[in-house]
Amino acid sequence: MNMKRYGLILALPLTLLVGCGEADELKTTATDTEEVVEEETKEEPVAESTEEAEVQESELGSNQIYMKNKALDIKETIGSVNFAIDKVQTSRLTVNEAYRDSFDGQEEVTVVAMNVIVENTIDDTISFHPNQATLVTNTGEQVSADLWFSDDVGGEFLGKVKKEGNVLFFVKAMPEELADVKVVIDGPSDADYQSIGESRYEYTINVEK
User: Fold this and answer.
1) Tens-digit pLDDT profile for residues 100-118
2) First to last CA, the chain
3) 78, 96, 105, 191: which is deepest, by most CB within 10 A?
């Protein structure tokens, strides 16, 4: 099972996130090694060439892009933290049989992917976890971000650190059923676990085509 999951990690960014933006956003969620980064760099031209078709085929399955918005303007200054969500994409993934165990046996799943940017502007340590956000859909689903497949954009920021990557949510509703989604994120805290800013931040994002 571990090997299957590791294989999924390598395949996922090229499959699910290519439509979210330029090739330099194709970040691996595996432990960063030079080998992994080089492999993805070599595959970027292939990924870009398939973007126009709106369907990406890979070992994981067939992923059909429904909508994407590369110009979201969600920005928040929370104490020393600059936070932004600048892209969103929805798609429908038909999962190859070999990987369905990783999706609780589902043959198809809708993917909501968001690109987030978090920057701590001071030397003090803060903690912030946008990769543990909650998504609420207009269809009545409430799901947590998938930590396994999302990029490592949360945790401790030990000083002036900037993290950027994709946060993924898997929902049962078809992409065309989604009109808007609400993202709920717990606010950051300092080294003494004291809240910075509000305790919770909510953003409603239109995902209609």
Assistant:
1) 888 889 999 999 999 999 9
2) 36
3) 78
What stretches of 96-150 adopt beta strand conformation (E)? Answer: 108-120, 125-128, 134-137, 142-144
Alpha-carbon span 108 to 118, nearest angstrom: 31
What the block records as the tokens of 122 is: 């001071």
Residue type, 26: L
User: Tens digits of per-residue pLDDT, 20-43?
Assistant: 444 333 332 333 434 444 444 333
Residue 115's closest CA among 195, 39, 20? Answer: 20
Which residue's structure tokens are 């987030």? 116
Are the C-beta atoms of 93 and 16 separated by less than 8 Å?
A: yes
* Rounded distance between C-alpha atoms, residue 107 and residue 95, angstroms: 5
Which range, 40-44, 104-108, 148-152, 181-185, has the best average confidence (pLDDT)?
Answer: 181-185
Report the b/e string of 140-153 with b at 16+ CB within 10 A: ebebebbeebbbeb
Pairing of strands 125-128, 134-137: unpaired
Q: Which two tokens stand for residue 69?
A: 């918005």
Quick check: 74 and 61 in contact, CB under 8 A? no
Euclidean distance between CA atoms 9 and 4, whole angstroms: 9
